[in-house]
């Protein structure tokens, strides 16, 4: 949220420089008009001198601004480092350079954002991963015109693509891609955790795992064993921050009929804490491994 | 008289031309138009390559343009990359149609002023149903090391083997650094006598001091923090410097409560408006 505010402020700050320069110009124009009304030629003459000074100042500032912007454009289009090779035939040098460049183009997928040129623009591929596991990739096909638009894409409908592109696509395309990547990676991570819970720990779940497509609301009941007795707990996890893979709200409740023994109140609170801090399947991993009363001290 | 007239006219014409040039070049923060220009540049250079008879040179030129475009699009320039593959499939695995391959990757490049060198391993296991790829090791070297805010982030990322988060957080970190630099430069340009950047515009400190009262100083410390989850957030603090006599006279404790008031103001006005109002309030007489 803060970033969004500052970005629009940033646009103003860039406009601020131009606006500032424009203000100088209007000031100048105003003083120019005043001077025209003056009677004596000498007044006109000296006023002209002042005007020239102000014009020079404005011109110098504009020159500096243009230089700086040109430098930025140049910096972003600097060449890729040439390959170091021995004295071989030119053909081989070219071939080697070609292989090198192709490899680097392929390597972009490891940044999480890569792309293939198309006739109308670029097809960007956003890769996702969670805890080192490489997961699904999504693509966004962009048309490089004024304005930039999305030709088609494979982003799931519950990801706020419209919102994100309305905010950033036209002004800051890098931001658009990285913020989209944030959302997709978080979604992928949540989905991975829910899938793992369902597949690996079905034995510990008392009922089906209830989830929405965005995997931002999860609800399930699980049994915790203690000295031969089984205690049912219900958990509800809310992920209000769509760019995070850990929940923002957790509530664990005792589902049994009889009163909850006091030691188990500590357990219940400890479980809540665990769900906040660790990925879902890891929490269940520790439940499964212990199989006995969890040492509360270990959890904090 | 005439020569002055002529000079004024010439200056006005030049100013008009410079303004046009300014509008055509992207302002800081307007990356999309830069990316669009880079894309158009590909096809322009491509038509030049048609004139050359060497097929390979044309192909090479195209690849170079594509690479330049990708680095403009992502903000990340990959300078070199190499990969080694090791087949770990044992005979037992092969019988069950399971294939196990270990890839070792080496990647180096830069993102604005930060350069990085990565070495990571990916274990690929292919069985009848599916293919799984897992990053099993990640090691990161980053320069310059002066960004102490990043060293903790780097070790956390290595521990989690979160390759994509590294690049994402790097992008946001660099964007914030650039924004901070632009903001400091803007205020220095607008109030040159009052704003002091003793360590330059790329540092994290901006001083505000009125020339008529040099003993009073406000220092804005603007750090950029990467949290546990890889989120990049600005952290601004206000430090005050006042002569002892002034502190004694300050019955209401205005100076003491300034840092807290600063935080509140940030929440209400945002960064730029807060800094502007601070500068104006300190130098109300100027």
TrEMBL record, chain A:
Subcellular location: Chromosome, Centromere; Nucleus
UniProt xrefs under InterPro entries: CENP-O
Gene Ontology cellular-component terms listed: Mis6-Sim4 complex; nuclear body
Domain of life: Eukaryota
Stretches assigned to coiled coil: 18-72
Principal location listed in the UniProt entry: nucleus
CDD domains: DRWD-C_CENP-O, DRWD-N_CENP-O
Alphabetical keyword list: Centromere, Chromosome, Coiled coil, Nucleus
Assigned protein family: Belongs to the CENP-O/MCM21 family.
Name of the protein in question: Centromere protein O
UniProtKB/TrEMBL annotation, chain B:
Database matches in Pfam families: CENP-P (PF13096)
GO biological process: CENP-A containing chromatin assembly
UniProt name for this protein: Centromere protein P
InterPro entries listed in its UniProt record: CENP-P
GN (gene name): CENPP
Gene Ontology CC, one term: nucleolus
Segment forming the signal sequence: none
């Amino acid at each position: 949220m803060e970033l969004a505010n500052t970005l629009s402020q940033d646009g103003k700050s860039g406009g601020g420089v131009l606006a500032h320069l424009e203000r100088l110009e209007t000031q100048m124009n105003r003083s120019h008009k005043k001077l025209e009304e003056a009677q004596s030629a000498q007044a006109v003459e000296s006023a002209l001198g002042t005007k020239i000074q102000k014009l020079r100042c404005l011109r110098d500032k504009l020159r500096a601004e243009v230089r700086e912007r040109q430098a930025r454009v140049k910096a972003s289009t600097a060449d890729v480092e040439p390959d170091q090779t021995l004295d071989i035939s030119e053909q081989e040098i070219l071939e080697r350079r070609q292989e090198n460049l192709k490899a680097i183009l392929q390597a972009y997928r490891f940044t999480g954002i890569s792309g293939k040129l198309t006739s109308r623009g670029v097809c960007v591929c956003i890769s996702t991963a969670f805890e080192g596991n490489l997961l699904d990739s999504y693509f966004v096909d962009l048309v490089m015109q004024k304005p930039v638009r999305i030709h088609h894409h494979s982003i799931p409908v519950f990801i706020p693509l419209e919102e994100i592109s309305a905010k950033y696509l036209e002004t800051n395309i890098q931001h658009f891609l990285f913020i989209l990547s944030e959302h997709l990676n978080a979604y992928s991570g949540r989905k991975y955790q829910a899938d793992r819970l369902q597949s690996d720990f079905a034995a510990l779940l008392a009922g089906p795992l209830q989830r929405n497509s965005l995997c931002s609301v999860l609800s399930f009941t699980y049994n915790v064993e203690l000295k031969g007795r089984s205690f049912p707990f219900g958990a509800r996890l809310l992920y209000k921050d769509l760019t995070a893979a850990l929940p923002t709200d957790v509530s664990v409740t005792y589902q049994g009929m009889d009163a909850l023994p006091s030691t188990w109140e500590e357990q219940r609170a400890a479980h809540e804490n665990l769900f906040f801090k660790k990925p879902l399947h890891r929490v269940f991993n520790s439940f499964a491994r212990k199989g006995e009363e969890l040492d509360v001290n270990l959890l904090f | 008289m005439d020569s002055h007239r002529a000079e004024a006219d010439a200056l006005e014409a030049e100013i008009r031309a410079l303004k046009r040039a300014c509008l055509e070049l992207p302002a800081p923060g307007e990356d999309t138009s830069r990316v669009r220009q880079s894309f158009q540049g590909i096809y322009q250079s491509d038509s030049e390559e048609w004139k050359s008879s060497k097929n390979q040179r044309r192909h090479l030129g195209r690849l170079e343009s594509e690479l330049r475009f990708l680095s403009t699009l992502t903000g990340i320039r990959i300078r070199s990359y190499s990969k080694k593959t090791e087949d770990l499939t044992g005979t037992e695995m092969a019988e069950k149609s399971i294939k196990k391959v270990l890839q070792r990757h080496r990647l180096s490049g830069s993102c604005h002023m930060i350069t990085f060198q990565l070495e990571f391993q990916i274990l690929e296991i292919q069985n009848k149903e599916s293919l799984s790829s897992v990053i099993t090791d990640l090691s990161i070297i980053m320069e310059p090391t002066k960004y102490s805010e990043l060293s903790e982030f780097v070790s956390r990322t290595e521990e989690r083997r979160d390759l994509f988060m590294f690049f994402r957080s790097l992008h946001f970190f660099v964007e914030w650094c650039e924004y901070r630099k632009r903001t400091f430069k803007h205020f220095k340009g607008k109030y040159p006598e009052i704003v002091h950047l003793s360590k330059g515009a790329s540092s994290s400190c901006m001083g505000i001091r009125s020339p008529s009262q040099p003993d009073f100083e406000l220092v804005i410390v603007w750090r950029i923090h990467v949290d546990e989850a890889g989120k990049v957030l600005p952290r601004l603090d206000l430090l005050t410097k006042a002569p002892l006599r002034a502190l004694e006279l300050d019955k209401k404790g205005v100076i003491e409560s300034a840092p807290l008031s600063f935080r509140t103001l940030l929440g209400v006005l945002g960064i730029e408006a807060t800094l502007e109002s601070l500068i104006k309030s300190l130098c109300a007489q100027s």
